[in-house]
């Protein structure tokens, strides 16, 4: 969900009530609940957050807008991110000079080129950041941690 003040990322899991709120001015990230999302917010589906990047115009949020299932590991789906959106935290570009606008446009073009290259994979239920050998040699405490905590 997008408002002029915040980005709200809502999990689609059954029973999930937590919503990630990202303040577009302070860049502060907090957890809130669904009822705090304003009804006026523009809503669109995404499949994940790739991250943030700071360019000339300010901070941008990079989200995954399309995905393709490429396989499974131990019955866990592995996805390839195939399309992205780059969302500006700033509401306008009026604070930029013409040269800064041009530089920002070039950097956005470069970023879009990098994102168009194959190689962005993810899983929401399996740790693909560690090898199977490494996972086998980790402590039980590590195995019980959520993917986010790892």
TrEMBL record:
InterPro entries per record: SAC_dom (IPR002013)
The reaction(s) this protein catalyses: a 1,2-diacyl-sn-glycero-3-phospho-(1D-myo-inositol 4-phosphate) + H2O = a 1,2-diacyl-sn-glycero-3-phospho-(1D-myo-inositol) + phosphate; a 1,2-diacyl-sn-glycero-3-phospho-(1D-myo-inositol-3-phosphate) + H2O = a 1,2-diacyl-sn-glycero-3-phospho-(1D-myo-inositol) + phosphate
Biological process annotations from GO: phosphatidylinositol dephosphorylation
Residue ranges crossing the lipid bilayer per the database entry: 46-64
EC number(s) recorded for this UniProt protein: 3.1.3.64
Keywords for the protein's UniProt record, in alphabetical order: Membrane, Transmembrane, Transmembrane helix
Domain annotation SAC: ranges: 47-140
Gene Ontology MF terms: phosphatidylinositol-3-phosphate phosphatase activity; phosphatidylinositol-4-phosphate phosphatase activity
Domain of life per record: Eukaryota
Pfam families named in the record: Syja_N
Name of this chain's protein: Phosphatidylinositol-3-phosphatase SAC1
The UniProt record lists the keyword Ribonucleoprotein: no
Species, as recorded: Smithornis capensis
Cellular component GO terms held in the UniProt record: endoplasmic reticulum
């Amino acid at each position: 969900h997008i408002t002029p003040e915040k980005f709200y990322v809502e999990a689609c899991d059954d029973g999930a009530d937590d919503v990630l709120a990202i303040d577009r001015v302070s860049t502060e990230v907090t957890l809130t609940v669904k009822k705090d999302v304003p009804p006026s917010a523009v809503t669109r589906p995404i499949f994940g957050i790739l991250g943030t990047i700071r360019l000339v115009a300010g901070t941008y949020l990079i989200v995954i807008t399309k995905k393709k299932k490429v396989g499974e590991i131990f019955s866990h789906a592995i996805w390839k991110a195939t399309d992205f959106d780059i969302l500006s935290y700033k509401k306008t570009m009026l604070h930029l000079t013409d040269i800064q606008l041009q530089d920002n446009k070039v950097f956005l073009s470069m970023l879009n080129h990098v994102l168009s290259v194959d190689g962005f994979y993810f899983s929401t239920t399996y740790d693909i950041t560690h090898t199977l050998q490494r996972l086998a040699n980790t402590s039980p405490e590590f195995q019980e941690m959520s993917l986010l905590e790892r």
